[in-house]
Structures are given as C-alpha cells and as structure tokens.
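Aim 2, interim progress. The first record below pairs a target sequence with its structure tokens.
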Amino acid sequence: MSSRIEDYGLIGDCETAALVGRDGSIDWLCWPAFDSDACFAALLGDRGNGRWKIAPAADATNISRRYWDDTLILETQFETAHGAVALIDFMPPRGQASDIVRLVRGLRGKVEMRMELIIRFGFGNDIPWVRRHDDRTSLLAISGPDMTVLRTPVETRGEDLTTVAHFEVSEGDTMPFVLTYGPSHLPPPKAIDPDVALRETKEFWTDWCSRGIYEGEHRNLVMRSLITLKALTFAPTGGIVAAPTTSLPEKLGGARNWDYRFCWLRDATFTLLALMNSGYTEEAMAWHNWLLRAAAGAPANMQIMYGIWGHRRLLEWEAEWLPGYEGSQPVRIGNAAHAQIQLDVYGELVDAFHQSRMTRLKLDEQSWSLECVMLDHLAEVWDKPDHGIWERRGDGRHYVFSKVMTWVAFDRGIKSAKKFGFDAPVEKWRRLRDIIHRDVCEKGFDVERNTFLESYGSKLLDASILLLPAVGFLPPDDPRIRGTIDAVERHMMRDGFVLRHDPSEESSYEQQPIEGAFLACTLWLADAHVLAGDLDKARVLFDRVVAIANDVGLLAEEYDPIGSRQLGNFPQALTHIALINTAHNIDVALKRSDKPAMQRSQ
C-alpha cells in the first residue's frame, strides 16, 4: 500500500516531477513530461505498478528528512541499529535528457542497503524489456516509445521482473544511482556526473531563490511554496500544472478523483499576484504569455484548462488496472471538465491581463485585441447557466461566483481602457457591468439570512463567495459581505477549516460523500478577514493551514480534520499560491499599508 499523501516529498526538473516517500520509495513519476504516462504508479496501486525504492535492508529506528536550504534537493536520513545513511534525491534542471539522481551517503557506522527498481510504463501496466548495455555498466529498460537507463557502480541483478541490489555503505562512502529517460528509437542518453549534477542543481535553485523579495515572518514556508510553484512550471512554455498527480481522492474511497496535470485559466490572477508580489517577473511574464497563446482563437471555444503545451484535447479515460489510492476508484487520465462552460474564466483572464499592466509587465499587443473579442462574446452569454468554479458534472446553474467574475471582466476592461488609453466601447461595457451587479445582488443574495449564495434559487452556500471583496464586487465593510463571511463561518467550517461545498447539500449533485476541507478556501477566508480589518482572525486561519503542512512544507488540495490527513492531488499549486498571497496580505496589513497586496487592483 502507498504511503499517506503527506508522507511524500517532491523533486522535479521543471518539466516533470516525482513523489518520494519517507520510506525512500519513488512511487509516482510521469516521464518525460507532467502529462506523460507514468512509469512509477505505485501511488495509485502497489509496487507491481512501478516504483524505485532505496532504503536500509533492516528496519530503520528513525527517519527524518529535509530540503537543502532554498533548493528542491531532498535529503532523507535513515538511522539503524548499525549506523546512519542519507539518501539525497534530486532531478537536475533539464539538459539533453531527464535524470533522477539518488546518492546514498554513509553518515555513521556501516549500513546494509537494498535497492529495488520496478519500471512499469503505461501507468503501471507495461512491463519493459531489460538488458545490459555499455559493457554491462548500465541497464536499459525499453517498452514501445519509452526507454530508461540505470547507471550505478553497484552490482544489480534481475529478480521476479525487478532489478535489485544489495550493498553496504560505511561512514564517508557515497553510492550514486542515476536513472535517465530517453526515446527508445534513439541511442541511450549520455551519462552525467552525479557530483557535478548535484552542484549545478544546488546553484540553480539557490540562484533562483535569491531573486525573491519576500522577507516576512514566514519566509521559509513562502519560499518553499514558491519553489513548489516553480517546480510545477513546464519550462518550455511557462504553463503551470495544478498538480503533478492524477486521481488522489478528495474523499478516501470516493470517486471524486481527477487528473490535475493540466493548466487552469482560473488560477491566472492568483498565480500572477503570487509571482509578482514575490519578485518573479520573468515567471509571471512566461505565465502571461502561456495564457495568451492558450486562449487565442474564437472566444466561444475558450476552455477552462489546457495542456502544458496549450493543447485543447484532454480526453478522459479510466486506467481500470489500477485499484486507486487506498481503493479510491476510478483512476482517471485526462479531464472531461475541459469541455465545460465556466463563465468565470473570462473574468480571470481579463483580470490577469489588467493586473499585468498595473505592474508594468510588457504585454503583447494582441492582448487587448483578445480581451475586446472576449468581452464581445461575454456580452452575449453572461446570463447563461454554467458549471461553476467547482466544475460540477451535470446540468448547469447560475452560479453567483461565475456571474461576479463576468462583472469583473467588464470592470477590468473599462479600467484598462481608461488608464491605458485603449479604444473600447466603454459605455456599453459600463451598462453591462451595472446590469450584472444588480442581477447578482437581486438573485444571488438571501436577504433573510444576509448572505450571498452558491447559485440563483438555491439556499446553499459555497466558499467561492468569500472572494467577492477581493475582486472588488463590494467593499469589505459592506453589511452583505460581513453577513456572507459570518454565514460561511457558521455553516461551512469543519474543525476550523473551510469546506468548499455546503455540508447541508447532502450529496445532492453527484451522490458522493462530503469531501475534506479545501485549504485554498480557508486561506480565502483569511484574506476576507484582512480586508475587513480582522487581522487576528486572519492570522489564526493562516497559522492553522501552516500547521498541517507536512515536514518539508508541502500541502495537498484538501485536509480531513477528522482523520488528520491530507487529501486530493499533491502538492497542489492553488494551495501554495493561496498561502503565498495570504502571507503577503498579512505582512502588508501588519505594516499598516492602505491596500493589502492580495486585493486586486481596482
């Protein structure tokens, strides 16, 4: 059985990423890119679906781990009755090929180690041919288009379709293992020097971190979140995946298991704020350019998510041979939600471009033309039902947050046109903006309960309504906003964390059990408190989220406070983005600034 979600660490080369368990097992890796087939899929099955484990042969008496300061180099220390070793795992920034380097260093005494490599291409289903290569100093595994090469001075052997090795490490020894991916129709990739790769990887990450400007009280955690965000960036295009995993469940044993190895337009503004507030203008520009390319084309055909290259077809299918994480089925590859209508993404995109201009990013001239065409389309469809921010599968509804974000689209279009002198039908946009505002306040607000609702005609709440003050729909001190915050706190919290769906819903949409608390939503509540001037409440919520980060600072999508476990795909970009932004927000508020950094430019 795979480890708990929070027991994994992340390594990556800014084109793909792997999850490394506390037990020294790499249980998840899609190679050569985030959206490729997995060659290690034990995370969603068992060891027979592929993994790479290096650990003491005998049980460890203690295991601890850490990232090297300001890097994505993960060190796990194993203590045994006979000594101690360190396992150093990293992926060098992508060169001619993609490599995983694992160094076993003796720290004390003498420790017997075991290495077990099980390559299973095709999401754990395809057993490769394995043969010796290069005078028997390396091992090739080939299946269809895929090839890996293992290079190590340690003697290996085959055992039940598994490559194994037993070796001893004494104090001062270092045993290297390098696994490299390459297309099977080409010669094997050239070997790299593990020591040089370690030095260059450390320099890459420390140099990158030195560009950051965040110096608040939570610097270590914010920098870990920024490093994670960088690791989830597909360097060739600038796209940022929501997570490197698929089908980690929102509820153990449930069916809400989705593929998050794609890029969501909805995260656009939050991502830009996190990067720009932290000093990473280059990454913000790369993300903006990815957004522009991905969204180019007819506005009616704009999707809510795209592939890492900007591709549109993300066909969903099920890997029936995988039993799922702790039996949570199905295991889904691809994401059918890409074809949904979600009106809020228009607002996110226009808002992202507006934020970029306000922070003086040099935008492509096509940006404004694209926005105008999108707003023309939005004028025709803003009053249609959609599937909402949480991507409900079923009939569309008039979601309040979707309507509010169409208001944001016209509001930011007007402000960009006025501030930067763009030619635009400002009066038309102003009329539409005012119509949408009245529509939301009349149909999306419950006067008796003094709160905004999930959707028109509903009595349910929904965590996305916490974002209304952040986007400027109403002032933070408006009684309707304060009433909404109060309602969320009364009805949508579980043990101090915010649920994204109203618990009184009773699975009416999808006949699924209620999921864990959504960590980004808990941070959105903290932001709402900062904007409303309730800084103490905001800090309590922020500290609560920080406290459930794992031992190396990583967070999943959700948290089950009853079972004290993280849930959902991991690590989750939106959670780490929200953490960065809330930390900025609180720090600026502590300095008595007039406008918290998290509040979008209005």
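The second target in this work package is listed in the same format:
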Amino acid sequence: MRFLFRKMLRSVGQFKLQFISALLLAMLSVMIYSGLEGVWKGIEYEFDTFAGETDLADEWAFATYFTRDDVTAIEQMEGVSGVSQRLRITVSAPSDDGGSDYLSLDTVGDESISSMKLISGEKYDKALTDSIWLDRDYAEENGISAGNTIDISYSGNSARATVAGIVVSAEKAHYIGTTDNYIPEHNKYGYGFMSDDLREKLGVRISCNLLEIKSSGSAVRANINELLGERFIAYYDRDTLFDVSFVRTQAANLKRVSILFSALFILLSALSMRTTIKRLIDAQSADITTLKSLGFSNGKLTLYYSLYGLLVSVLGTGAGYLASFLFSKIIQRSQKKLISLPEWEIRHTVGSLIVILLIIVMSLLTSAISARKALKGLPAESAQNKAVRTKTLLMERAGSIWNRLSFGAKWTLRDASAHKSRIMLGIVSVCGSFMLLIIGSGTPDSIKALTEKSYSEEFVYDYKLTLNTANTPEQTETLKDELNGQLIQTVQSRVTLDGGSKVYFKPITIFSEGDYIGLRTTDGSELSENGVYITEGIADSFGVKTGDKLELFPSLSSGSFDFTVDGIVPSSMPQTLYIGAKRWTDAGAEFCPSHLLCGREYDPDTFGNDVRISQFISRKQQEDNLRNFSSVTASVFLLMKVVAVALVAIVLYNLGILSLIERAKPYNTFRVLGFRFGEIRRFASFESVIILVIGTIAGIPFGLRFLELYCANFSNDMMKIYPSIGMISLVIAFCIVAVCTAATIVLLSRRIRKTDMTQALKE
C-alpha cells in the first residue's frame, strides 16, 4: 500500500486542478456553515447566559399606574413567581448637534429581576442620589464615562445627574428607542437606570407604571386587560418584546442562511468528487491494467481510489474549519451594530462536526462507488479501448428537428447524454449560483423597494410628532390647525378572532381625516374613516381575511369592541390594525391622539421648545434608518454574491478540464480529419452554452422562490418584507454567470489548441 500511496500523491499532482476544485468546494462548505454557526450560536449562547445572569423577566405589563392591589393580584396569578415594580419614563438630554437625545430611564424595583450588568463605574446602590447608570452603547457613541454629569429634562422639569456606572441590560439587547426605527441609533437613543430621588426632581408623581414578571405559563396574558381596565397600556412577553425577540430572530436568520449554503455546497462537493474520481480512473486505464496484472484486487484498488476522496475532503474540511473563525469575526462586526451583548464569542454546535463528517463520508463513498463501477472486469478487458456507448436521443426520433442541427450540436448532445453527471454538476452549479445571486441582490432590492414605497407612496408626511400626554384636547386641536396636520392614535390592543380562545396583543393605529396616509387595500381601495383594516403580515399570521370579526380590548379602555375587517393592507411597516377615527368613535371608543403627521409647516427650530410636543422624527430619518439596516446586513448579502461567483467559476472550470480529458481523442481525431480549430472550439463551447441556458432557466424561478422564502423568514412583528428584485440585478446575475462561462470556454480553447494532433493517430 506504500507504493499505492506514493502513486496517489503523484496522481494528485498530475490532476491538481480537479482536486483543488473539489477541495475548495469542501472548504467553502465548512467555512460558510461553521462561520455562520459560530455567529448565530454565539449570539444564542451569550444572550441566554446574559439573560440567566441578570434573571431576565418573562413578561412585561405597562399601565398608567399600578396600585398595591394590582401587584398583589398579579403575584397571586397562576404561574407567577416574582414581580418587580418599576417606573419608566423617557427623558431628553442635550445633544452635540443642538437638538435632543432621548433616554429611557427606569427606577429599580426587585434587583433580582432583569438586573443590569455593570461594565464600569459603581454598582447600583439605593443610597446613591442624583445618579444614573447609563447604557454602554449610548455612552460610547457620545463620549460619556462613569463620573461624568449630564442634564436631563422631563415635562418641563430638569435635573443634573451623575453617571454612576456604565451598564448593559438583556431586555434592551436590540434597543431602537422608538417604534419609528428598525435598527439602533445609539448616538441619539439610549437607556439607563435612575436613583429614586430623580423621579421626584423630574416632577413624576406616580411610583410605578411597569411590572416585570417572572413566570412560567402564567395567566397574566389572558387577564391583564380586565384587571387594569382603562389603566392598561401594553403587554409583552419574550416573543413579542422586540428588544428581546429580535435577538432570536436574527440568530435564526443566520442559521437558515448557513443551512442553505452548506446544503448546496455539500451536493456540489459530492458531484464534483464523483466526476473527478471517474475521470481519474478513465485516464489511468493503462495503470489499472498493470496493477491488476500484478495481482492487485478490485477491493484494494477500490480502497486505493477511495483514499483520494478521503484525502481531499479531510484537507478541505480542515482548512474550512480553521478559516471559519476569521469568517465569523467578519460577520460579527455587522451583528454588533444590531445587538448589544456583554461579550461576543464564537460558539459551535455538533452541527459543524456533522457537516464535516458528512462531507468526508460522502466524498469517501462517492469515490468508492465510482471506483467500483469503473474497475469491474478482467485485466484484459480493462486494456481494451472501450468506446463510450450512447443511447438514441429522444430528439433524434423527431427527425425534422434533429436534421436541422449542425454536426457539432448533434455530437455534443450525444456526448452529453453519455456523461450525464458532468452535465448535471454544471446545471446545479449554475442554478445554485443564480439562487445565491438573486437572494444576495434581491434582499437589498426588497428593502430598498420597501423604503421607497413606505415613504413616498404610503406615508407622505415630512415629520411625525409625538404629542405630550399632558396636552388638553384644545391644545392638540390648535397644534393640528397650526401645522395643517393629520392626527393619529397608536395604542396596543388585545385581539381575539371570532370569539376564539387565542389571545394576541397587537398595535392599533386610529387615523383621522388627512392627506399624509396613502395606504390602499389589496383591491386598490383607499382607507376610509369608516373602515377597519389589517396589514397583510398580521393577517397572514392570524389567518384573517376580509369580513372576519375581531374583538379588540384596547389600552386605556375599560371594555372591548367588536369590528369587522373591511380590507387587507399590503404594507410593509408598521404591522398594525388601521381603524378610521369615525368608526372608532361610533363604536363607543374615545379618540385620544398620540401623534401628529405634518408637512414642511413644522420647523424643528421654531417648535423645538413647544411643550405640546415631546419628540419628533422626520421621514428622512426613518428612511435613513432603513437604509442603514440594509447597509448593516450588506456583509451577508455580499457573501452570497462572492460565493456564487466562486462557485460557478470553480465548478465550470473543473468541468471544462474534465471535459477536455474525456474528449481529447475526439478533438484530436477531428483535427486529423481536417476540422479547423474554430469549429472544434464551437463543439467544445456548445456544451457550456447548454449548461448556461438550462441552469439559467432553472435558476431564475428557484432563485425567486428562495428570495420569497428568505424575505418571509426575514420579516417579523414590526415589518413584512415583500420580495422584489430589479431587472438590472437579474441582468447582472446573468452576466456574472455568462462571463464565468465565457472565461471557461476561453481557457478550454487554449488547452485544446495545445493538444498533440498526432496522438489521435497513435491511438
């Protein structure tokens, strides 16, 4: 076997291009899967550890205020093991640009529930006064350190606070600051914890408006509305609190991408190894005959050729696993802009080992099966020059079509039918490349289309103002008239369908008459003040259609209201129920506007100190936030494109070399018979064109379908992404694959020109 091992090394050097391509496919399979797994598993592990260390709450209930009886009632509910009472307010702080930053500050109740993790400075101490513990990301963005002081204000009251410590909180792992954003803006929005005395200095009279609940299968979700009545504001659990649920969703998205990549590359690795080993055996027919004559059995030779697959797969997967750590670090950079964790570590599961073993076993088995089939027969039979037998093609029976084809086309089709695995490998690689290119280009295109549609067609305001909760109806109406705006009310509501037992908590937007909401239903109808509508994302998750009945128990209300759905709205964000103000008030509910949409009449400088306005955000800021989301996730999409190019380049070049080996005798014979080089080049090119055409025809619909599934998985409670890809992106994808095909043809043509014409006469 030592002799065979040395021969194997010489053969690998002789056919190095084929083995390098198989090695690269195995390497990419492991590098991409393990690299992405290192990120998503690391996110899951670190967040779970973080949540465990700080004892993250399981449920959150918000109200205008809580009484001692409310807290006692919730503590006694089935499944509740602990309750922490907090006050949460949003204060403003002066920013460097002359505007305002916004900080969500909590008092600290039960320190064992959803506690803060200290990064620097002093630990939380109830005895400290005029102190806040500020979140790490906001502090870093604004150059704030422990010991600094900052000025904060709330409803016209101001205070100067000392930053006692820098902290992070598990329940703010994806803190966006406002529902008008989708990704964090740490330079403008932050969170923290404040000493109890600051509540009084800022003029806050209530002591508790938030309960953080530790529970398991509790009855809080089903009973919170009735318990609190019109004091109820919102309810969340770990699956619906966006600051928490986003972490799991993002990890799941990365996991799906890793599986998509690895599945495609494992398939191509197996096909490539099968093709490579078969061609190696065909090229070594004389060596095999000699080895058999010397007494080497088919079993030993099968084992010998199986070692090729073992060697290549072990080297490829080993290199891929080592490279995956660098790859994970690159992907982590983008994820750190979305998720805030105390530590970022690369973690792997047994899945990486399974992928490595799967590639090794499949390569070994593929090599063994290919070798066994090729080694059948006696030594004398192996020495014979076996002609490749081809079956009659179905197209040949259609004489009118077949007779119109050129000689080269007929010969290529017959040859392809005798080497189906080679053709299949090429088609799968082209199809897979198209899928990756379409997803890699289509996802950013979809987000771009979402942004343009949302803020140029569906919402056409210039500014969205958050109204001061202390405003009187007269103050709100006066402000509306001054700015010629449109009032809306945003509340959360408990939702049940047709008297069903399932309970959902979803946002509701009640809109008054105005020109700043341009939404339409799926049948093209405009929204009416007398209508009730539901966005398509929620409708799909609920299984709701037009005409269905909903029972709503909204926040700040003491009772429920029945509505019938008048239409489905195909809007990306926000995912909400839209109810016309007239329909709302006719049902007996009270319209209490929380926001004002307006145009250029609003001037931040003029209205900057207007007590009727607590916050504002421009449409441009919202657009920029979405574009930033696209740029933050661009590394994953760029990865898809780069891998797609590498995939098609590696596989097609490998196929070209293998095709040349298989067709060396026919090419030489053609030249001896007088065929010009250009004609032979066309014969060689025709197969590549066939692979390109069939791969494109299959790849585009598959790619569009996968883009649809990817966008669906990427969507969440806040946003539904509709798949969209521009014609330019499709043309670029085709051009990339076509250029790789053309490059393969050029390289193959050069190899054909260098072949020895007299070799055909010798054989």
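Residues 378-387 have pLDDT under 50 and may be disordered. This observation will shape the mutagenesis plan for the next reporting period.
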